[in-house]
């Protein structure tokens, strides 16, 4: 074994230090376990064995040549000597002279990174014999000690790293994103740097963002939105509200995404920026007092030197973004950090391409943050005006124009076209399959995009049991917790209704007016969001009205900027289109209901309440041949005499009562219809001939035993003809049944005759 490598490992893991309390306890337990008087760990260090942890041994170290442990170091394997006096490795060396009273030795290598650095030794003054199991146990215990020595070094290193972090002026924070932020870790110096209690925020009694001022909460939300949009790194300044003062924090954040581009975690470094913030505020206040008239020029000019990273601009350039010219910061970082995060990558790529000579001119249109936190659309042109001897660009100059009004008009026109497009898409989708929910779901993503929002829903007012409910046709699908997952399942099953209107969207329905809330919890109707639901920072509720009546609503939430009345007016065509679709659906339902009622009336005999002759013929057209299908014709006996003797009103009542009896006795799959004045037809299915006859005889008896409103209290009877349906020819079967009925009348009525018995 190379001596140098062993010594390097011992130094690397600090193995020659004072004894380890954990290993000392383990060594003591090993001595008791194997019933030996002496146990130790021997670390080979600079020609000596250091007995770092020992039991039954007073000396702390010994020269390697004077120690039995040198046998393990030499042979690099486990050494078991049952009787030292019988082993020449002991008797033929100086060890016998130095340790004459020893009789037993067991040593197992201690190994780190594949190198033997010492041994675990057991010594006794009497001969011993170890079983294979004991030898194996000793090897395992040696491995445990080796692993502990290696892990202890890593533990010390981690402790040092954490100590450095906890003592640094920067707080490290990690959030996990799952449709909302969840704090994962924060360094313990959060109290010293930011004034926040470590235990309080790590136990989730209150989130980091809840300590922010209202404007900073919106700034923090904007940072999260940018990460959700794919921006990898951001920098922002936030104000933490404490009991007695405020702390300004500079937050550098980096987002991490999965393979699909979905945000997973956000790591951030927070530093105290209070002094710098106050200084900047004093500068801004002084600058506002000393502000002169803005330049009348429409163009801002800029001249950027790459070698010094400094930009010179005119006053108009500063005026466009609301920055005081006297205190303008000429570094590239100043104007880069004001570019909208979603535009920064494109701007940087265009500058880089021009600097490399790939384009003749640098041209870009992008957004910059104004001092009042609004966004200004900038059109800029520039070109390289100076290069060094190697041809490398060192100076870039150009102009800067505010095109916000023109750009917003273009965006408005584009959105109008987009709005018209998905309005037509909704109408086409509905006309294609007459499914209003599918039509609403098809346009919801485009609605969210055109409204610059994060969430949206479309609902329709319905009345059930005189109660007004909001049926949700389309909604942003989120799974926040078990309760919301149940709502999502209801939505997928088209059973999601909102019944409570004591909230923001309910206020839209109750007031029948547009509801706008641009500050968290500021609206009187705001009641917060369910637990686990992402916060609603901004909300706009738009009523859908038809002829002055609210028939539904559109809900939008978490626009990047404030919702305005102009937003509501812009979406008016969509609201009108949905109102028309809602009305069309109601008309369609009413038409189908009326058609169903008319069809039912056309196919129903009004006197008996049974199907009529027309319905019977349509039914026959659908009947197929079967060995177990029978036709029967029922005729009321002496019905003409009843009409002549007691009047047609009594006759009509007899028909109504027989119709009621037939309805009660003849259930599906069988079919019954009134086909004439006193004639009824029956189609029986899945019955044998004996079953069909028995069924009809019971029916004849039931009619005979029923009480009818005849003045003379006489009974009413019927005659029945039965025929089997052998083939797809209902006319033949009916004719046969009619012949059997005639035979029943000839035989005296009040009976059943089967065509099979007379043929």
- Strand tally: 27
- Biggest sheet, open or closed, and with what strands and sense? 6 strands, antiparallel
- What number is the mean pLDDT? 82
Question: Which class of secondary structure composition applies to the elements?
Answer: alpha+beta
- Biggest sheet strand order reads 3-2-1-6-5-4
Give the end-to-end Cα distance, rounded to a whole number of Å.
116 Å
Calculate Rg over CA atoms: 47 Å
CATH C-level class of the largest domain is Alpha Beta
Q: In the CATH hierarchy, what is the architecture of the largest domain at level 2?
A: 2-Layer Sandwich
Number of domains: 5
What CATH calls the topology of the largest domain is Beta-Lactamase
Morphology: flat
* Count of DSSP H/I helices: 25
Low-confidence stretches: 290-297
- The proportion of strand residues reads 25-35%
The CATH homologous superfamily of the largest domain is named GAF domain
Helix share, percent? 40-55%
Structure notes:
The protein has 759 residues and is α+β, with helices and mostly antiparallel strands. It has five domains: 3-163, Beta-Lactamase, CATH 3.30.450; 168-275, PAS domain (Beta-Lactamase), CATH 3.30.450.20; 297-402, Beta-Lactamase; 429-590, 2-Layer Sandwich (Beta-Lactamase), CATH 3.30.450; 613-758, Alpha-Beta Plaits. It is built from 25 helices and 27 strands. Strand 1 and strand 2 form a beta hairpin. Helix 14 runs antiparallel to helix 15 (436-450), helix 14 runs parallel beside helix 19 and helix 21 packs across helix 22 (648-665). The N and C termini lie far apart (116 Å). The model is unreliable at 290-297 (pLDDT under 50).
């Amino acid at each position: 074994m190379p001596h140098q490598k062993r010594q390097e490992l011992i130094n690397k893991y600090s193995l020659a230090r004072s004894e380890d309390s954990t290993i000392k306890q383990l060594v003591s337990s090993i001595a008791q376990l194997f019933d030996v008087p002496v146990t130790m760990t021997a670390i080979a260090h600079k020609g000596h064995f250091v007995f770092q942890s020992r039991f039954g041994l007073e000396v702390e170290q010994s020269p390697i040549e004077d120690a039995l442990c040198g046998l393990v170091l030499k042979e690099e394997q486990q050494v078991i000597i049952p009787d030292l006096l019988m082993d020449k490795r002991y008797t033929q060396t100086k060890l016998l002279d130095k340790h004459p009273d020893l009789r037993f030795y067991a040593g197992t290598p201690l190994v780190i990174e594949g190198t033997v650095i010492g041994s675990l030794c057991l010594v006794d003054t009497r001969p011993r014999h170890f079983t294979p199991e004991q030898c194996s146990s000793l090897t395992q215990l040696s491995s445990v000690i080796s692993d502990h020595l290696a892990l202890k070094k890593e533990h010390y290193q981690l402790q040092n790293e954490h100590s450095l972090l906890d003592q640094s002026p920067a707080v490290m924070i990690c959030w996990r994103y799952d449709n909302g932020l969840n704090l994962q870790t924060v360094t313990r110096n959060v109290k010293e740097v930011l004034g926040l209690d470590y235990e309080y925020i790590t136990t989730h009694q209150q989130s980091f963002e809840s300590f922010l001022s209202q404007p900073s909460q919106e700034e923090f939300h904007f940072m999260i939105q940018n990460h959700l949009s794919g921006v990898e790194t951001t920098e922002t300044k936030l104000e933490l509200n404490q009991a007695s003062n405020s702390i300004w924090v500079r937050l550098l954040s980096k987002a991490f995404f999965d393979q699909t581009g979905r945000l997973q975690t956000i790591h951030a470094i927070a530093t105290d920026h209070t002094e710098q913030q106050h200084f900047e505020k004093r500068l801004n206040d002084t600058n506002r007092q000393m502000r002169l008239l803005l330049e009348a020029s429409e163009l801002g000019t800029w001249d950027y030197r790459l070698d010094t990273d400094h930009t010179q601009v005119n006053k108009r350039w500063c005026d466009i973004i609301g920055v005081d010219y006297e205190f303008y910061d000429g570094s590239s970082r100043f104007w880069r950090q004001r570019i909208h995060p979603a535009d920064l990558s494109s701007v940087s790529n265009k500058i880089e391409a021009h600097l490399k000579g790939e384009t003749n001119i640098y041209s870009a249109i992008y957004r910059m943050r104004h001092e009042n936190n609004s966004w200004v659309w900038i059109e800029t042109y520039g070109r390289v005006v100076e290069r060094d001897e190697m041809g490398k660009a060192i100076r870039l100059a150009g102009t800067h124009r505010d095109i916000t009004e023109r750009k917003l008009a273009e965006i408005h026109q584009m959105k109008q076209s987009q709005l018209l497009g998905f309005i037509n898409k909704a109408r086409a989708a509905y006309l294609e399959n007459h499914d209003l929910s599918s039509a609403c779901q098809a346009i919801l993503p485009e609605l969210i995009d055109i409204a610059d929002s994060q969430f949206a829903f479309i609902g329709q007012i319905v009345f059930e049991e005189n109660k007004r409910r909001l049926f949700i046709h389309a909604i942003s699908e989120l799974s926040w917790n078990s309760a919301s997952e149940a709502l999502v399942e209801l939505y997928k099953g088209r059973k999601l209704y909102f019944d409570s209107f004591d909230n923001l969207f309910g206020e839209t329905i109750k007031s029948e007016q547009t509801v706008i809330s641009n500050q968290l919890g500021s609206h009187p109707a705001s009641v917060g969001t369910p637990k686990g639901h992402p916060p609603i920072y901004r909300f706009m509720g738009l009523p859908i009205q038809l002829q002055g009546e609210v028939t539904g609503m559109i809900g939008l939430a978490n626009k990047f900027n404030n919702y305005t009345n102009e937003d509501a007016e812009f979406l008016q065509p969509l609201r009108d289109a949905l109102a028309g679709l809602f009305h069309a659906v109601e008309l369609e339902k009413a038409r189908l209901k009326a058609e169903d009622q008319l069809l039912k009336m056309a196919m129903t005999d009004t006197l008996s309440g049974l199907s009529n002759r027309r319905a019977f013929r349509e039914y026959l057209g659908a009947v197929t041949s079967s060995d177990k299908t029978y036709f029967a014709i029922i005729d009321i006996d002496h019905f003409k005499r009843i009409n002549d003797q007691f009047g047609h009103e009594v006759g009509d009542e007899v028909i109504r009562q027989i119709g009621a009896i037939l309805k009660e006795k003849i259930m599906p799959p069988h079919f019954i219809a009134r086909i004439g004045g006193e004639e009824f037809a029956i189609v029986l299915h899945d019955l044998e001939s004996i079953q069909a006859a028995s069924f009809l005889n019971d029916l004849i008896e039931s009619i005979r035993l029923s009480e009818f409103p005849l003045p003379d209290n006489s009974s009413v009877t019927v005659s029945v003809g039965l025929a089997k349906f052998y083939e797809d020819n209902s006319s033949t079967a009916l004719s046969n049944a009619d012949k059997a009925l005639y035979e029943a009348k000839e035989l005296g009525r009040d009976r059943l005759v089967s065509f099979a018995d007379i043929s």
